[in-house]
Amino acid sequence: MDFSNSSEDARFREEVSTFFKQFTGDGGSLPTREREQTLGRAMAERGLVGVRLVDGALEPTLDKLQALIVAEEAVRWGVDLNFITGNMFVAKTLAVVGTEDQKLTILPRIARGEVRVALGYTEPDTGSDIAAARTTAIRDGDEWRINGQKMFTSGAAVSDYIWLLTRTSPDKPKWAGLTMFILPTDTPGITVQPLETIDGEREATMTFYDDVRVPDSARVGEVDGGAAVLRLAMDFEHGGGAVPGRSLVGTAHEAWRSAVEQARNVLGADGRPLLDDPMVRERLVTLAIRNDVSALLELWSISTGGSSGPSGAVGSLAKLHSRETQQLVFETILDIFGDAAGLPPGVEGGLADGEFEVGFRRSMVATISGGSSEIQRNIIAERLLGLPRMGRK
Ligand SMILES: Cc1cc2nc3c(=O)[nH]c(=O)nc-3n(C[C@H](O)[C@H](O)[C@H](O)COP(=O)(O)OP(=O)(O)OC[C@H]3O[C@@H](n4cnc5c(N)ncnc54)[C@H](O)[C@@H]3O)c2cc1C
Questions:
Q1: If pLDDT is split at 50, 70 and 90, which confidence band does 201 have?
Q2: Spatial CB neighbours of 33, under 8 Å, sequence gap ≥ 6
Q3: Lining residues, ligand 1, CB within 6 Å
Q4: 341-359 burial by CB neighbour count: b if 16+ within 10 A, else e?
Q5: Quick one: pLDDT at residue 168?
Q6: In this structure, are residues 135 and 123 in contact, taking their beta carbons and an 8 Å threshold?
Q7: What angle do CA 348, 266, 326 make, to 5 degrees?
Q8: What is residue 239's predicted lDDT score, i.e. its pLDDT?
Q9: Residue 41 has what pLDDT?
């Protein structure tokens, strides 16, 4: 089996790289909202978001390897594609279970890269246990009244819609009483509060729903059928389609490259470049091998498709290995280069202008968002290794 890119893929990578490079130059100084809209539109025009609408139906524009190439090149040029990923699996879910009205009004705007959809699953007391959501939606004539709170609603402050998981039947078993909605973020009663995460980002938010009234047309899927909608969306999120996701390896790989460059110039206690030190070389080689394993697991994961069934556990394996490796890469870099690598951006004497310090903090977030490492281990244990479920004989 040949794992190298074909010449066609290499050409595609070159094109994508040029695109992101130009965009980084033009878009870097724009405020988040405008930058995302400009990027979203430009990517959609070139088919780089992974889908396009043809006669009302979504058609793929990328194959799985191309989607991975887009994600990797985005990391290389420091372009954040998180919002595209969220948008695309909402679009794909709407294309399957959305109403005709949602397909006519919301879907085209997502496909054109014009709007952003924030994901409202996690609540203050329910993160990993997603189906325990307590935000209620109560029927009131032709409308629904929504009350509750969500945590870590990424990008809600700059989004147009919220994809919202609610509880419609508190008396039913937890998976059976959920209903999904998609509603505009400017609906009266919604408040968004920024939330600073350890990486210094204020992208995650808390969102509050205080007697929010929405028409029944905002409902996605059946009443109490939210679990099926959620599973479909998660299938798309965890690799069930060729859209540029979060590159699992890109950040760790770029950090490794940068560390090797630094090690050529930074001198050790013996006055020689750190790269000449056999211990440093050995640690860098170990990281490179782990990154390669992550890359192979990612390829395996995208080749197996969706997250349901045993193949979904491969996605968990790839996520677990790559995110834990990402943390190890930054921990090791901080250890090799010492204090200078631990200084934040803008501080005199810092190495690579704080790049490694920021990366270290981000690497901690990366093992939580999108499902924590412990949850990935549970999935691998149960689905891939066939071990008994937690708490059951
Ligand atoms: C930067 C960032 C962005 C995010 N963006 C979004 C978003 O846009 N939309 C959204 O809805 N959510 C978002 N999240 C939430 C994210 O999905 C949750 O943080 C994650 O699922 C963990 O949930 P929790 O924080 O409630 O932790 P908890 O579920 O309370 O877990 C706490 C600890 O217990 C462990 N644990 C929990 N259950 C088990 C178990 N069964 N077995 C073993 N260990 C367990 C966890 O691994 C963790 O270490 C984001 C989070 C972050 C950090």
A1: confident
A2: 158
A3: 119-122, 127-128, 152-154, 197, 204, 365, 368-369, 371-372, 374-375, 378, 390
A4: bbbeeeeeebbbebbbbbb
A5: 98
A6: yes
A7: 85
A8: 60
A9: 92
Q: Provide the Cα torsion 99, 100, 101, 102; round to 10°.
A: 50
- pLDDT band at residue 392 using 50, 70 and 90 as cut-offs: low
Q: Who contacts 371 (Cβ-Cβ below 8 Å, separation ≥6)?
A: 128, 316, 319
- Residues 6 or more apart whose CB falls under 8 angstroms from that of 346 comprise 353, 354
Which tokens sit at 45?
């025009």
Q: Where are the beta strands (DSSP E) in 160-296?
A: 161-167, 178-184, 190-194, 205-215, 219-220
Per the document, the length of the chain is 393
Residue 88's pLDDT is 87
Ligand 1 centroid to residue 72 C-alpha, Å: 25
Q: Both tokens of residue 307? A: 């997250």
Residues 6+ apart with CB under 8 A from 343: 349, 350, 351, 354, 357
Q: What is the pLDDT of residues 91-135, one digit of tens each?
A: 999 999 999 999 999 999 998 988 999 999 999 999 899 999 999
Cα-Cα-Cα-Cα dihedral sign, residues 179, 185, 189, 192? positive
Ligand 1 atom 51: residue of nearest CA: 369
Half-sphere exposure of 163 (CA within 13 A, CB side): 28
pLDDT at 244 over 80: no
pLDDT digits 0-9 by tens, 23-67: 775 445 556 788 888 899 999 999 999 888 898 888 989 988 898
Q: Which residues are catalytic?
A: 237
